[in-house]
Design goal:
Elements (H helix, E strand, L loop, with lengths): L3 E2 L10 H11 L13 H19 L6 E4 L2 H16 L5 E5 L4 H12 L3 E5 L9 H7 L4 E7 L11 H9 L6 E5 L11 H4 L3 E5 L10 E5 L25 H16 L1 H22 L3 E3 L11 E6 L4 H10 L2 E2 L1 E2 L12 H5 L4 H5 L1 E5 L6 H21 L1 H6 L1
Helix pairs in contact: 1-8, 2-8, 3-4, 9-13, 10-13
Length: 391
């Protein structure tokens, strides 16, 4: 059976060059990065080179990059580190109801600890309410957190406008950005955008799992979150995985060497998929914006009258990996909180499917996927009492 993968929001296939770059650090180059030790000086220099590769890709300085074990850990170090260190300046933070769970669970944690949290609302396309942001700023607001590209519907938040609003306050408000779905898909210059803290992840751009990075602007102070021996990094204490970092750096090198070409290909494929579905299958609804306000790899569509979970399982049996916009059974079959915040009803939320593409996908794969999808949707609707009532 052929296998097609359209769940690149969750994780991506490591590039062959990435695996080649990692292997030497698992075989010969296992020496811990440290000066004055045989092989250690070389490893230290290579670690600095890898930092520079990441830093150059976002317009940062090498010393502003901290490697972490994941994007989630980078988010936690940024949020918990900043809020615990700077609570003396204020205890009000701003986030939105459609942000990534890393941000929302941290907001809830600090809310229980005595912070005030303002939750911004979303419009019907998954864009946060900037007027509400402007009106929410208080004298004790110290941080605003946002998800650059929404992980469910692909909407791109206007980071530059957000920064301008935060700058209109008469005091400094730190801006933390989760860029897990944005990095490698849209241009990011942390200085141009005024980002203070930002998390990224290796396995979302064809790098290995188990490695991420935190951008920490010079002058932004973070308290310790992970305690332990400070060997190489004051935030990610203990050892580091040189093989994972080498693979991450290689993935960045490949991605940004052909950045425009990669993005154009993703945009072409997702537009092709979107049109193919809309032309082939009736009663569908695109979730999120069209055009430049949408990340180039994301297509999220609701299929009326049927459950996304059923579509996903039947597609999986056909060898096609996709994600459903509704929660999985382990989460109690709840409607997707982002789609509900955008104004979708329970049926539209439960019937949504998310396709996230990579540069390894092809139009031939899309053709076969939509053909199978049309068969499955037709069969599920045949069994659906909602569809039969509509007829």
């Amino acid at each position: 059976m052929k296998k097609y993968y359209f769940d690149n929001c969750k994780t991506t296939q490591p590039a062959p060059e990435v695996i080649d770059a990692m292997l030497p650090y698992l075989k010969e180059k296992f020496i811990f990065p440290a000066n004055f030790v045989f092989g250690g000086s070389t490893a230290s220099q290579e670690l600095e080179d890898f930092k520079k590769t990441i830093a150059d890709s976002i317009g940062a300085k090498s010393e502003e990059i901290h490697f972490t074990a994941s994007g989630t850990l980078a988010n936690n170090i940024a949020i918990k580190g900043f809020l615990s260190e700077n609570a003396k300046d204020g205890t009000h933070i701003i986030v939105s109801v459609i942000d990534y769970p890393d941000l929302l669970t941290n907001a809830a944690f600090f809310e229980k600890s005595g912070f005030d949290v303002t939750y911004l609302q979303s419009n019907s396309e998954g864009m946060i309410d900037l007027e509400q942001l402007k009106n929410s700023i208080r004298e004790d607001t110290i941080m605003m957190m946002t998800t650059f590209v929404n992980h469910t519907v692909g909407s791109i938040q206007p980071i530059k406008k957000i920064r301008e609003i935060l700058n209109s306050a008469d005091h400094k408000i730190a801006l933390h950005v989760d860029a897990g779905q944005a990095y490698g898909k849209i241009p990011i210059d942390v200085n141009e955008l005024g980002i203070d803290l930002m998390s990224i992840s290796g396995h979302k751009i064809h790098g290995p799992q188990g490695v991420g990075a935190l951008f920490q602007r010079k002058g932004i102070v973070l308290g310790p979150v992970v305690h332990g021996i400070n060997r190489l990094d004051n935030h990610q204490t203990g050892a580091v995985s040189m093989s994972n970092i080498a693979g991450f750096a290689k993935a960045v090198e490949i991605n940004f060497a052909n950045f425009e070409s990669n993005v154009n290909k993703l945009r072409e494929l997702s537009n092709y998929l979107m049109k193919k579905i809309e032309d082939t299958i009736p009663h569908t609804l695109l979730n999120g914006p069209r055009g430049d306000n949408r990340a180039p790899h994301n297509v999220n569509i609701s299929f009326d009258f049927i459950e996304g979970e059923a579509i996903m399982l039947m597609m999986d049996m056909a060898g096609i990996s996709v994600a459903t916009g509704s929660a999985c059974a382990s989460q109690g079959l709840k409607a997707n909180y982002i789609l509900m915040a955008m104004g979708r009803n329970h049926e539209q939320s439960h019937s949504s499917m998310k396709f996230t593409l990579s540069r390894y996908n092809t139009k031939d794969e899309i053709d076969e996927t939509v053909e199978k999808l049309a068969e499955i949707v037709q069969e599920l609707r045949r069994r659906s009492p909602l569809y039969n009532e509509e007829k």
